[in-house]
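$ run holo --ligand "adenosine-2'-monophosphate" --emit C-alpha coordinates
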Amino acid sequence: MPRSGKKRLFFALWPDDDIRDRVVRATRAEVRGTDGKPTPPENLHMTLNFLGPTPQSLIHSLIERVSALPLAPFELTLEQYGYWQRAGTLWLGPNETPRPLAELVGDIGRISHELGLPRNRRAFIPHMTLARKVGRLAPKEPPRPIRWPVNEFVLAESALGGRHSRYTILEHFD
Ligand code: 2AM
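-- output --
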Protein backbone atom coordinates (compact mmCIF):
# COMPACT_ATOMS: atom_id res chain seq x y z
CA MET A 1 0.00 0.00 0.00
CA PRO A 2 1.29 3.53 -0.70
CA ARG A 3 2.66 5.42 2.29
CA SER A 4 -0.39 7.67 2.38
CA GLY A 5 -2.49 4.64 3.46
CA LYS A 6 -4.82 5.21 0.54
CA LYS A 7 -5.72 2.97 -2.35
CA ARG A 8 -6.68 4.25 -5.79
CA LEU A 9 -10.03 2.57 -6.24
CA PHE A 10 -12.74 2.30 -8.82
CA PHE A 11 -15.87 0.25 -9.41
CA ALA A 12 -16.07 -1.42 -12.79
CA LEU A 13 -17.65 -4.01 -15.03
CA TRP A 14 -15.00 -6.58 -15.82
CA PRO A 15 -15.47 -8.73 -18.94
CA ASP A 16 -15.09 -12.48 -18.64
CA ASP A 17 -12.70 -14.30 -20.99
CA ASP A 18 -15.32 -14.75 -23.68
CA ILE A 19 -16.40 -11.10 -23.84
CA ARG A 20 -12.80 -9.93 -23.58
CA ASP A 21 -11.79 -12.13 -26.54
CA ARG A 22 -14.70 -10.86 -28.59
CA VAL A 23 -13.81 -7.25 -27.87
CA VAL A 24 -10.18 -7.85 -28.77
CA ARG A 25 -11.07 -9.62 -32.01
CA ALA A 26 -13.70 -7.07 -33.04
CA THR A 27 -11.47 -4.05 -32.42
CA ARG A 28 -7.92 -5.27 -33.07
CA ALA A 29 -7.61 -3.96 -36.60
CA GLU A 30 -8.95 -0.52 -35.65
CA VAL A 31 -6.69 -0.27 -32.62
CA ARG A 32 -3.63 -1.36 -34.57
CA GLY A 33 -4.46 1.22 -37.20
CA THR A 34 -3.90 4.02 -34.69
CA ASP A 35 -0.66 5.44 -33.34
CA GLY A 36 -1.89 4.97 -29.74
CA LYS A 37 -1.01 2.71 -26.85
CA PRO A 38 -3.40 -0.27 -26.82
CA THR A 39 -4.92 -1.37 -23.51
CA PRO A 40 -3.53 -4.83 -22.68
CA PRO A 41 -6.43 -7.32 -22.98
CA GLU A 42 -6.30 -8.21 -19.29
CA ASN A 43 -6.82 -4.54 -18.42
CA LEU A 44 -10.00 -4.08 -20.47
CA HIS A 45 -12.90 -2.96 -18.27
CA MET A 46 -15.67 -0.40 -17.99
CA THR A 47 -15.40 2.01 -15.09
CA LEU A 48 -18.62 2.71 -13.21
CA ASN A 49 -17.36 5.09 -10.54
CA PHE A 50 -13.84 6.32 -10.08
CA LEU A 51 -13.19 6.92 -6.38
CA GLY A 52 -9.56 7.95 -6.56
CA PRO A 53 -7.32 7.71 -3.49
CA THR A 54 -9.50 6.15 -0.79
CA PRO A 55 -8.53 5.91 2.89
CA GLN A 56 -8.09 2.33 4.02
CA SER A 57 -10.46 3.04 6.92
CA LEU A 58 -13.40 3.58 4.53
CA ILE A 59 -13.01 0.50 2.40
CA HIS A 60 -14.79 -1.90 4.74
CA SER A 61 -17.89 0.32 5.04
CA LEU A 62 -17.84 0.99 1.33
CA ILE A 63 -17.87 -2.73 0.51
CA GLU A 64 -20.53 -3.42 3.11
CA ARG A 65 -22.87 -0.73 1.83
CA VAL A 66 -22.35 -1.46 -1.85
CA SER A 67 -22.91 -5.20 -1.21
CA ALA A 68 -26.40 -4.35 0.02
CA LEU A 69 -27.40 -2.74 -3.30
CA PRO A 70 -29.77 -4.82 -5.39
CA LEU A 71 -28.24 -5.61 -8.77
CA ALA A 72 -30.74 -6.03 -11.58
CA PRO A 73 -28.98 -8.01 -14.34
CA PHE A 74 -28.89 -6.21 -17.68
CA GLU A 75 -27.35 -6.50 -21.09
CA LEU A 76 -24.93 -4.03 -22.59
CA THR A 77 -24.44 -3.82 -26.32
CA LEU A 78 -20.97 -2.61 -27.21
CA GLU A 79 -21.49 -1.10 -30.60
CA GLN A 80 -19.87 2.26 -31.10
CA TYR A 81 -16.42 3.76 -31.03
CA GLY A 82 -15.77 7.02 -29.26
CA TYR A 83 -12.75 9.28 -29.12
CA TRP A 84 -11.72 11.83 -26.52
CA GLN A 85 -9.15 14.08 -27.99
CA ARG A 86 -7.58 15.50 -24.84
CA ALA A 87 -6.14 12.21 -23.62
CA GLY A 88 -6.34 10.59 -27.04
CA THR A 89 -8.70 7.94 -25.67
CA LEU A 90 -10.23 5.54 -28.18
CA TRP A 91 -13.09 3.61 -26.60
CA LEU A 92 -15.87 1.16 -27.26
CA GLY A 93 -19.28 1.59 -25.69
CA PRO A 94 -23.03 1.14 -25.97
CA ASN A 95 -25.31 3.59 -27.77
CA GLU A 96 -27.62 3.59 -24.79
CA THR A 97 -27.11 3.26 -21.06
CA PRO A 98 -29.43 0.57 -19.65
CA ARG A 99 -31.47 1.94 -16.77
CA PRO A 100 -30.14 -0.59 -14.18
CA LEU A 101 -26.61 0.52 -15.07
CA ALA A 102 -27.42 4.21 -14.62
CA GLU A 103 -29.12 3.40 -11.31
CA LEU A 104 -26.16 1.37 -10.09
CA VAL A 105 -23.73 4.17 -10.90
CA GLY A 106 -26.02 6.65 -9.14
CA ASP A 107 -26.32 4.45 -6.05
CA ILE A 108 -22.58 3.86 -5.78
CA GLY A 109 -21.99 7.60 -6.25
CA ARG A 110 -24.42 8.40 -3.44
CA ILE A 111 -22.82 5.87 -1.08
CA SER A 112 -19.30 7.05 -1.76
CA HIS A 113 -20.34 10.66 -1.29
CA GLU A 114 -22.04 9.81 2.01
CA LEU A 115 -18.78 8.20 3.12
CA GLY A 116 -16.99 11.46 2.42
CA LEU A 117 -15.42 10.72 -0.96
CA PRO A 118 -15.50 13.43 -3.62
CA ARG A 119 -18.21 13.30 -6.25
CA ASN A 120 -17.21 12.40 -9.80
CA ARG A 121 -17.05 15.61 -11.72
CA ARG A 122 -17.45 13.90 -15.07
CA ALA A 123 -20.85 12.68 -16.18
CA PHE A 124 -21.01 8.91 -16.56
CA ILE A 125 -20.32 7.81 -20.11
CA PRO A 126 -20.11 4.03 -20.34
CA HIS A 127 -16.91 3.23 -22.19
CA MET A 128 -14.18 0.63 -22.40
CA THR A 129 -10.83 2.25 -23.15
CA LEU A 130 -9.18 0.45 -26.08
CA ALA A 131 -6.16 2.70 -26.54
CA ARG A 132 -4.67 5.86 -25.09
CA LYS A 133 -2.59 8.62 -26.60
CA VAL A 134 -4.23 8.19 -29.96
CA GLY A 135 -3.27 11.29 -31.88
CA ARG A 136 -4.40 10.34 -35.30
CA LEU A 137 -7.73 8.76 -35.99
CA ALA A 138 -9.22 7.65 -39.29
CA PRO A 139 -13.04 7.48 -39.46
CA LYS A 140 -14.16 4.19 -37.99
CA GLU A 141 -16.75 1.72 -39.15
CA PRO A 142 -18.65 0.64 -36.06
CA PRO A 143 -17.70 -2.88 -34.96
CA ARG A 144 -20.11 -5.76 -35.09
CA PRO A 145 -22.19 -5.31 -31.87
CA ILE A 146 -21.08 -7.38 -28.89
CA ARG A 147 -23.81 -8.29 -26.43
CA TRP A 148 -22.52 -8.42 -22.89
CA PRO A 149 -24.83 -9.92 -20.26
CA VAL A 150 -23.90 -8.28 -16.97
CA ASN A 151 -24.67 -9.81 -13.61
CA GLU A 152 -21.78 -8.64 -11.50
CA PHE A 153 -19.42 -5.73 -10.97
CA VAL A 154 -16.16 -5.34 -9.08
CA LEU A 155 -14.19 -3.01 -6.87
CA ALA A 156 -10.67 -2.70 -8.25
CA GLU A 157 -7.43 -1.02 -7.29
CA SER A 158 -5.27 0.74 -9.80
CA ALA A 159 -1.52 0.98 -9.36
CA LEU A 160 0.11 3.60 -11.53
CA GLY A 161 3.64 3.51 -12.80
CA GLY A 162 5.18 1.30 -15.42
CA ARG A 163 4.04 1.32 -19.01
CA HIS A 164 0.48 0.33 -18.13
CA SER A 165 -1.66 0.64 -15.01
CA ARG A 166 -1.85 -2.54 -12.99
CA TYR A 167 -5.31 -3.48 -11.76
CA THR A 168 -6.21 -5.77 -8.90
CA ILE A 169 -9.79 -6.87 -8.30
CA LEU A 170 -10.51 -6.55 -4.58
CA GLU A 171 -14.15 -7.59 -4.44
CA HIS A 172 -16.91 -9.04 -6.63
CA PHE A 173 -20.55 -7.96 -6.23
CA ASP A 174 -23.41 -9.95 -7.73
P1 2AM B 1 -10.37 5.76 -18.57
O1 2AM B 1 -10.23 4.35 -19.04
O2 2AM B 1 -11.39 6.53 -19.32
O3 2AM B 1 -9.04 6.48 -18.48
C1 2AM B 1 -8.79 3.27 -13.63
O4 2AM B 1 -7.88 4.28 -13.79
C2 2AM B 1 -10.08 3.60 -14.32
O5 2AM B 1 -10.63 4.79 -13.76
C3 2AM B 1 -9.97 3.84 -15.81
O6 2AM B 1 -11.03 3.17 -16.45
C4 2AM B 1 -10.12 5.33 -15.99
O7 2AM B 1 -10.91 5.68 -17.08
C5 2AM B 1 -10.89 5.73 -14.77
N1 2AM B 1 -10.45 7.04 -14.29
C6 2AM B 1 -9.22 7.43 -14.00
N2 2AM B 1 -9.21 8.70 -13.55
C7 2AM B 1 -10.49 9.12 -13.57
C8 2AM B 1 -11.15 10.34 -13.23
N3 2AM B 1 -10.49 11.40 -12.74
N4 2AM B 1 -12.50 10.40 -13.37
C9 2AM B 1 -13.18 9.34 -13.85
N5 2AM B 1 -12.62 8.18 -14.19
C10 2AM B 1 -11.29 8.06 -14.06
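-- notes --
The beta strands are 6-13, 37-38, 46-55, 74-78, 80-84, 89-93, 128-132, 146-150, 153-159, 166-173.
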